[in-house]
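Can anyone check this?
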Amino acid sequence: MYGGIAVIRTITQAASGLLAALGIASANPALAQITFGSPSDPPRIALGGGAFDVLPDDKKPGAGTTGLVLSEYRFGDVLWIVAPFVGVMGTGKGAFYGYGGFGFDVNFAEKWIFTPTAAVGYFTNGTGIDLGAHCEFRTGAEFDYRFDNLTRIGVGLYHMSNAGIGKQNPGVELATFVLTVPLH
């Protein structure tokens, strides 16, 4: 049950953030130029690093913040505004996560982009926290600045858990810094 609640909480937080951003953007006519999707952006590679288990529960074996690295191939807008991606992530405690998912861009004033995402994949914990199943879900969002050459730099915040399908479901939060480079 906790996993389902955590996923709902993460989705609700992402939606609240989007609504707040929309409210702020609509307060100023210059910022009110909001568009969905990035059809002119080509496929791209994202490389990032950050922290895994940023809100550790010390009562759980293996819990504790550790570094992470990730790499993703982002296909661009394939189905209307929906952009699929595949990726891999590893942590300083030997965890591995191979995943696939989708997201969509919400563009603010041409340069700022909010991208909610959802993914599912295969997880092994290494010496870190056991998330209770090999099938893990990741939900969250990335907030980027897009340069004129379509390179993006930004931060991502995510929740990862098995949504209650495993024997336990502690869930973890991730914080990332990401550089996304277009493939021309």
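Reply from J.R.: I decoded it. The radius of gyration is 17 Å.
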